[in-house]
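Before surveying the methods themselves, let us examine one representative protein, pairing a chain with its fold in token form.
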Amino acid sequence: MTFASRLRTLVAAGLCLCAALTGIAEPGPAHAPRSAGNRVTNRKANPRGRVLIVMYHATGPEEKYMVRSRKNFKKDLQRLYDMGYRPITLAEYANSKYDIPPGSSPVVMTFDDSRDSQFQLRKDGSIDPDCMVGMWKEFAKTHADFPVKGTFFMLPNGPFGSKKTGKAKVKALKDWGCELASHTLTHPFLNKLSGDNVKRELAGSIEWLRKFGVEATTVALPYGVPPRDQSVFKGFKWKGQTFRFRAVAFAGAWPARSTADPQCDLYQVPRVEASEKAGGLTVWLDRVQAGKSKPLVVP
């Protein structure tokens, strides 16, 4: 291969990576987003209904503990869409920002641990269609009002398994409107740490995310276990700086209260595990369809 040929190959590969991460080269959606005048469902407005906050960790060919099968992840996307759910981030939920179409219900799609199966690139730089971001991107091509917009609770594991592409992946997620949030530095049981070590974990995570141009305002508890002093999330000092969080995600098994509900506690936000088991996503969607659980519905 001549030098010119090699150069053309390298340039093409670089353009492919940029296109994959920015979506520039991808075909547009099959239909335009719904206009503000069209109601997504015939459900009446319900500002104090429950908010579904879904917890994902990884995907794979088969369903198992903390792994959502690719088949079921695709089913989740379709079922949520068909039931009138539209994605927002945890930070938007905490700030009562429901910028979704009338008649729809918010769903917060959360992803813990910044694992490689959440966001993978192929050798040519394109997004792996079998990773969670890849499947969601494909779905969004024909469902423009269900874009890739989730909350990713990050760990310094690349992120997403690769230091080489981690920064580009974070930028792509930010550009798409996703939220990058804290999951501590080393994923410890916070209840087993001293107060100073809890602060080190939280502050260190925020400072690490700042290297990517991210200012984290929410956090997910490792293993769903809080520290002994939960007031730390409302504000603490570490090395001369003040840190605080707007919301704290647990690993509970029921939908969260609306922020319009006086009993809503943003420092104890429950999530629903994406699974088929009792208390899992499928069961809760069944309950909503049966009228046993009333979701928040925007006017």
About this structure: Residues 46-289 form a domain with the TIM Barrel fold (CATH 3.20.20.370).
